[in-house]
Design brief:
The complex is a heterotrimer of chains A (183), B (446) and C (341). Chain B has 446 residues and is α/β, with parallel strands linked by helices. Chain B has 13 helices and 16 strands. With 341 residues, chain C is an alpha/beta fold. The chains are: A alpha/beta (183), B alpha/beta (446), C alpha/beta (341). Chains in contact: A-C, B-C.
């Protein structure tokens, strides 16, 4: 794996998520009406961790859900077919301040799909976006409100966020696209 | 008059005389000739080295469809297909429109056959008027017009009472009654054997008993009133056994079997090539192959093997093609709506050679079932059609028993392209067919 | 070519995305265990969509699905239509009556015409066994889904049966399912058998000898394991067959079978093969009772059972929509071989 660069360690991820947790509570002036929604697949564990961080310093819990966006993608016939997973929200999104949580913010198309999926579920009061990594190359007029780390990349690279719940390890790496394909 | 023909250096097999030797074969003035002292001027020479020459094949059972169904076949295309398959005589079935139930239709067919070419066309007359199963045709008038027997083929002789009358009346005329043995009260569906394959496909089947019960009926009537009973396209082991027993009792029963019942099974409905996978395997889009839908249906492997044994031991006198050409549209429908039958004249010999290769019977015996066997069903007056004796009609087929060739139905002379063999490779190919001294197919080779 | 969401390709692979996309769904006999499991997982997710107030997602936007029903059916046709519409496909219904089929146009010509109109998928119900196979081999651009063909197969009904069973019983491997009734003429039974076998369940067919495909199963005596399809047995005595069953599927009895001489009489049938309360108690506690519908209450199932809390007949209808959504999604999304995008 000569072409792989580790950008964030497990500790870096933990610190970044803790900071995002503080920023979310600060920007929303508390926990009132807050709902964290992780975008499946790796956004979901990140959302839960942010919620845990909030609980640790606020002493109160914030509801967390998981959102599957595969039925809302704009590239369903140009890629291998993704498995559809259940969307699980503990409360209605109506009137809530919803924070979408994703692992990588790239073209903005995932965020677009997530917004559409969310709107079909109800009418949130406000929607914000948190991403562990913003790698640039945005293709849509969407910006992340909370970013763990900005990582300038070329299009020939892939940013891989690994979380222990899915991948057995916490880290972020930049991988050469050709090598990623071989692996 | 046609030119003299010399077939040079072929292996000559003549079951009528028992001959099997390599020699030259001469034809002059439409007849088999003796060796001339000097070759006649303008004689056509066919190189026969490595090939087999035998009497032309006789098909007791072909659907030439004319008059009435010329979109499926005509006498012209049907006889061309016969010639391409090595047949020099074909018997036309009477399920035409109008049916062959009057002298006028018999004469029409004879005229069209003369116009078409040298292959001999004989006609079976209908047993019942309009093949309706109610009253006998004017059998003596039909006999005088030239029919060689009677059948309501496509349908069985409808009732035992009618069959009894037909055997009696035709027997007095010296002609056989051919029956398509199928008990409609047993057959739930058409075109597929009742068995695991039909159950797998969710199709209503036609069990062996549906054929056997009518064969039993006809044999019982034959022993009651006499006459001659010919069982068409026998497809079941039980049918073979009953005919074997009836022959042992000395009854005047004869029988035929088709190339497809001798070489294929009901599993061909799963799609050619899927046949070996068995009924537990997944179906493919090739399943429900309506080209393998015939009547009677393709049966089990045990039936197929019993038929081959019946052919070998002579219980089954003749191979008959049951050539049943259909249009594309007749078959381009779901299986249970498709027409029954396959276009068989041009693949018959290639299919049958597989029996010789697996040792089911030897080549002279196979030729006998294609020549003297069917001639004997037609009666003594047709014996010359199955003989290479000097002075016999010059009906000769020249074939390569080993040549491999791919079946391309689109190139059939027949209008019927309906065969599950399309695209498959057969071994054994007709090279030239001479009927009445004229080259009907092939020609001076090389 | 720049592909949006490129980094998520990795996700799709790592998470075991479906195998190369299939074009047709003709029966469950060519579905692997993994493919069925994937479909049922996806169907579970689709059920969530069914509960929403906005029952629609855009994943099949711009796809055209035709339903061609040459046999009366409300339940299955509406279920397919709803499934397609909830995923935003355009669904066009063609019925047998009033269509060109009634004017004598052949099924093949009708299908070729529909294909030329650039429809993506043809959902076909036909009274003729094998009609979807015939269409699949004659259509080169349009996928075919079998919505029931004659007495042969009904794969989406079987999928919903599997989904219903799995949601109640969990993993079906090792479970024992009894199918009682007219399995010979039942397209549901045939597809259920292949689906259950793929998931590792064992199946007992129970019914009169005239209504079971005994030649396919070989054997045919009490409890004789079938040689034809492994894991499938025959037991004519329902009291014995039902003992310790995890699920019972009662099939619809059609009156015309009696007229055709395949049944002694309805009284005798109900006496010997009706799922009664007493018989149902012999199955495992909590055993499922299912019926593909429409039901003859008091014939194949005692009326008191048909509406009992343990009966899943309405649950089956909901699952039918979900599982058809999953199937349409699987057939119409994902990379095509040859990269037609």
């Amino acid at each position: 794996m000569t072409g792989e660069r580790r950008i964030l360690s497990g500790g870096d991820i933990r610190r970044a998520l803790t900071r995002i947790a503080h920023e979310i509570v600060e920007a929303n002036k508390g926990l009132d009406g807050l709902l964290l929604v992780g975008v499946l697949r790796r956004g979901a564990p990140l959302a839960r961790r942010i919620a845990q961080a909030v609980a640790s310093f606020e002493g109160a819990s914030v509801p967390v859900g998981a959102l599957d966006i595969n039925l809302y993608r704009d590239d369903l016939t140009s890629r291998p077919q993704p498995l559809v997973r259940p969307t699980e929200l503990p409360v209605s999104v109506d009137g809530r301040a919803v924070v979408l949580v994703d692992d990588v913010f790239f073209t903005g198309r995932t965020a677009r799909a997530a917004l559409n999926a969310l709107m079909d579920l109800g009418r949130p009061r406000v929607v914000q976006l948190a991403a562990l990594v913003d790698r640039g190359h945005h293709e849509l007029p969407i910006c992340a409100d909370y970013v763990g780390k900005n990582i300038p990349t070329s299009l020939g690279e892939i940013v891989q966020v690994r979380v222990s719940e899915v991948d057995g390890v916490d880290e972020v790496a930049v991988v050469d696209r050709a090598e990623a394909r071989e692996a | 008059m046609s030119a003299a023909i010399c077939i040079r250096g072929a292996r000559v097999i003549d079951p009528a005389s028992g001959e099997d030797s390599v020699r030259d074969l001469f034809i002059r003035d439409g007849l088999i000739a003796g060796a001339p002292e000097t070759p006649p001027d303008g004689a056509v020479t066919l190189e026969g080295a490595g090939l087999v020459a035998s009497p032309g094949f006789i098909d007791l059972h072909a659907h030439l469809r004319e008059p009435g169904f010329e979109d499926k076949e005509s006498i012209e295309t049907g006889t061309a297909a016969a010639a391409a398959g090595g047949f020099t005589t074909v018997c036309a079935m009477p399920n035409t429109s109008p049916a062959i139930d009057s002298a006028a239709v018999v004469e029409f067919i004879a005229r069209r056959a003369r116009e078409a070419g040298p292959v001999r066309v004989l006609a079976f007359g209908a047993v019942s008027k309009g093949r309706a199963g109610l009253e006998l045709t004017d059998m003596e008038e039909l006999a005088r017009a030239g029919v060689v027997g009677f059948t309501d083929d496509g349908s069985p002789v409808a009732t035992g009472r009618l069959m009894q009358a037909a055997l009696l009346y035709a027997g007095e005329l010296g002609l056989p009654v051919m029956d398509h043995c199928e008990d409609h009260s047993i057959t739930a569906g058409l075109g597929i054997n009742e068995g695991p394959t039909a159950s797998r496909l969710g199709l209503a089947g036609y069990p062996s008993a549906g054929e056997e019960s009518i064969i039993a009926r006809d044999i019982a009537l034959l022993s009651l009133v006499g006459g001659r009973f010919h069982a068409a396209h026998v497809s079941t082991a039980g049918g073979v056994e009953m005919i074997r027993a009836a022959k042992r009792r000395g009854l005047a029963v004869t029988a035929e079997v088709t190339p497809h019942h001798l070489t294929m099974t009901d599993e061909w409905a799963l799609g050619a090539g899927a046949a070996t996978a068995g009924v537990a395997a997944p179906l493919t889009a090739a399943a429900y192959d309506a080209r393998a839908k015939v009547s009677p249906p393709l049966r089990s492997a045990a039936d197929r093997d019993a038929l081959a044994e019946g052919l070998r031991d002579g219980t089954l006198d003749a191979v008959a093609t049951d050539h049943a050409p259909h249009t594309f549209g007749d078959k381009a429908v779901p299986f249970d709506e498709a027409a029954v039958g396959l276009s068989g004249l041009e693949t018959a010999f290639g299919s049958l050679m597989s029996l010789v290769r697996v040792g089911a019977l030897d080549l002279p015996a196979l030729i006998a079932r294609l020549t003297v066997g069917p001639a004997s069903v037609l009666g003594e007056r047709f014996a010359g059609l199955a003989s290479l004796a000097v002075g016999s009609p010059a009906d000769v087929v020249l074939f390569d028993p080993d040549e491999r060739w791919e079946v391309d139905a689109s190139r059939f002379a027949s209008k019927g392209k309906n065969t599950p063999l399309d695209g498959l490779t057969l071994q054994g190919r007709v090279k030239a067919t001479i009927a009445g001294g004229e080259i009907a197919f092939g020609g001076p080779a090389r | 070519m720049t592909t949006a969401l490129a980094e998520e390709r990795r996700d799709a692979r790592a998470d075991g995305a479906a195998p190369p996309r299939r074009r047709h769904a003709l029966d469950l006999d060519d579905f692997s265990r993994d493919e069925i499991t994937g479909l049922l997982d996806s169907a579970d997710a689709m059920r969530e969509l069914l509960r929403r107030s906005i029952k629609k997602a855009p994943s099949l936007r711009g796809k055209v699905i035709l339903t061609l029903f040459l046999e009366p059916s409300t339940r299955t046709r509406v279920s397919f239509e709803q499934a397609g519409k909830m995923l935003s496909a355009d669904v066009i219904n063609i019925s047998g009556s009033g269509s060109s089929a009634e004017k004598g146009e052949s099924l093949l010509n009708t299908a070729l015409t529909l294909q030329a109109m650039r429809a993506d998928l043809l959902v076909v119900r036909s009274p003729h066994s094998g009609a979807p196979y015939f269409l699949a081999r004659n259509l080169d651009r349009m996928g075919v889904v079998n919505a029931g063909d004659g007495r042969h197969a009904h794969p989406t009904q079987a999928l919903l049966d599997l989904m219903t069973m799995r949601r109640s019983l969990g993993d079906l491997a090792g479970k024992r399912v009894v199918i009682v009734g007219d399995a010979l003429h039942s397209r549901v039974a045939r597809s259920d058998v292949f689906g259950l076998r793929a998931l590792g369940a064992s199946v007992t067919l129970c019914g009169p000898p005239t209504l079971l495909p005994l030649d396919l199963l070989r054997g045919g005596g009490a409890g004789v394991p079938a040689a034809g399809i492994p894991g499938v047995s025959v037991e004519h005595d329902l009291d014995r067959a039902i003992a310790d069953a995890d699920a019972v599927i009662a099939l619809r009895i059609q009156q015309e079978r009696q007229e055709a001489g395949a049944l002694p009489g309805m009284r005798e049938y109900t006496r010997r093969w009706q799922v009664t309360e007493a018989r149902y108690r012999k199955a495992k506690p909590g055993a499922l009772l299912m019926h593909p519908g429409p039901m003859n209450e008091g014939i194949e199932i005692a009326s008191s059972l048909a509406h009992a809390p343990g009966a899943l007949i309405e649950e089956q209808v909901t699952n039918g929509v979900a599982v058809r959504m999953a199937l349409l999604y699987q057939l119409l999304t994902g990379e095509r071989e040859g990269g037609e995008a």
